[in-house]
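Archive transcription. Copying these from loose printouts into the bound notebook so they stop getting lost. Printout 1 of 2:
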Amino acid sequence: MTTERTEAALRVDPSTTSGEREALEQWLDFHRATLARKCEGLDDAQLRTLSAPPSDLNLLGLVRHMAEVERGWFRRVLAGEDVGWIYSTDEDRDGDIHVTDEDTYDEAHATWQAEIARARTLAATRGLDDLGVGEHRSGRTFNLRWIYLHMIEEYARHNGHADLLRERVDGAAGD
């Protein structure tokens, strides 16, 4: 495995020979660290830079969004915890993306990392086939394997957005 240390994140390339659970966890952690890397070295104003009209997408909003996603899938769906939204409201379901001049990366990053830590704790005691005990808005039931795969997909998609946002902010491109 290759390890890269950066200011915001330790990113480890997933093993090419690990078992299923280890591979899922490694890929999810890789994508979590990738999003943190996309935000490295930027100030709050740069992190609030919008992609292109009419989109409200921005790097700070993506970090806040992923905190909401971690909370939703692991705490609400997997564990059945009765927790509210962090940034979104009934009036603004995209409140995670809609940042203001008062919103900071330090706060968003700390919140996101706390949700990741809670997700790891909740997943650690469950098997991949274990079903979530919480309600999903679709009414469907999900096992931990599905949640891991969905989280990898969610991060991969948003890391693609983050690539474009970062390039727009300062021209930095790459992984």
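Printout 2 of 2:
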Amino acid sequence: MTDSALPDPLGDVEGTVVDGVRIQAPFQHADAPDPFGRLWTPHRMVYINGQDKPTDASASQCPFCSAPERSDTEALIVHRGENAYVLMNLYPYNTGHLLVCPYRHISDWTEATAAERAEIGRLTARSMEVVRAVSHPHGFNLGMNQGEVAGAGIAAHLHQHVVPRWRGDANFMPIIGKTKPVPQLLGQQRDLLAAAWLDAPIALEAD
């Protein structure tokens, strides 16, 4: 059957049988409510648009270099060490997502001194202890993305990710909805983790 043989307009064809198939009314009419919910996250636009992301590799534009110059509350810093410090990820993958950064503006793990590597390792372990004491996650993702091609958002300044994970946290929202619900504000997370930094249990060190 050609298109010219079909009734016109298409809105009047309900109930018509074409090649043995009865045409049903559409599931959703143009004036019907949208069946899909929306979780609007306009704050994510600053990340998508690259707001405050350095346009070059210099320390003068680096947020990880400028953060220690501000107050802990303003910069979301949880702990300051001698060679490195810990702060909240401004665009977290999960609740309690921390970053461990050296103070020095270096981009590669091979550029870190032995003292920086040791302290980044210690602060990573301590971050896990503190997040466990506060939020009781079931596991962690740890990692460094070296270079933009490897996924580093700010490739010019080395940083270690500490991402707590819970069973079922990788549900349909990030996979289908491209949205990651984070139920607690960053400032509240920072306050809880900073308060627990000195009080959380410390794992026994191996001999």
